[in-house]
Write a structure and sequence with these properties.
CATH topology: Rossmann fold
Domain ABC transporter: 4-246
Largest sheet: 6 strands, mixed
GO molecular function, one term: ATP binding
Structural class: alpha/beta
Bound molecules: adenosine-5'-triphosphate
Distance between the termini: 34 Å
Keywords: ATP-binding, Nucleotide-binding, Transport
Protein name: Zinc ABC transporter ATP-binding protein
Order of helices and strands: EEEHEEEHHHHEHEHEEHH
Organism: Peribacillus loiseleuriae
Radius of gyration: 19 Å
Strand content: 15-25%
CATH architecture: 3-Layer(aba) Sandwich
Helix content: 25-40%
CATH superfamily: P-loop containing nucleotide triphosphate hydrolases
Length: 249
Amino acid sequence: MPIIKVEDISYKYSKDLVLEDVSLQVPQGAFLAIVGPNGSGKSTLLKLILGVLKIQKGNIELFGQPIRQFKDWQKIGFVSQKANSFNSGFPATVFEVVLSGLTKKIGLFKIPRKEHKKKVVKVLESVGMLSFKDRNIGELSGGQQQRVFIARSLVSEPELMILDEPTVGVDQKNVQQFYEILEMMNKQLGITLILVTHDVATVTDKVTHVACINKTLHFHGDACEYNELNEEELSSIYGHGVQLLSHNH
Ligand SMILES: Nc1ncnc2c1ncn2[C@@H]1O[C@H](COP(=O)(O)OP(=O)(O)OP(=O)(O)O)[C@@H](O)[C@H]1O
């Protein structure tokens, strides 16, 4: 059973379709990159999958259930591109931010137990941020904040994690580290990942599957297949003049 099944989805905000007849499946354990130029409908597709936008045409199933009936939202973690925008005055430590990912489990205003604190320490360690646990979140760099937000999502043990351009504003060196964390989550923790990104050149040798979207789905397959596409095939995927080539080309 695929974890996500998108069938014939079309969507428009006003007159024009921004998604047209998009169908794709995400198997359990996959690491899928959704790539496409600016304004190609990537975030819209995510919002439909996350239930933020209402389906106009087509169907989506999550964990085998039609999205309308789906209630297990705690199985899904989400990290948005705007996560790393805390100002330096924000009054919460790294530890507190990650602990807030357990609010549903602990219950609002209840006192966290030892096991909860242990979980926070464990996930902070896994993203390499344990030594920052008492620092104020607003005093960290964008890349460090982003890792803390990943940890906050991880702490509730999601089965699927969706990341919308998480590396925007993160420098190249930290981007590499960031992808290593994602690989660890996918391979060691067995979390299915969906990553929306512009950064095709960096991701295609790290992910298992690639979906190229530009209103319609132009390619959906495994990453090896994608890496073997020639230039002509790639430009027919993206349209001429769109600079989104894999580094193998
Ligand atoms: N709330 C909205 N109301 C009207 N139009 C919208 C809205 N959100 C997005 N759009 C339009 O829908 C199209 C697809 O937008 P979307 O955000 O899904 O693209 P994207 O691929 O995520 O883009 P980017 O890579 O720039 O983040 C764009 O033309 C955008 O202007």
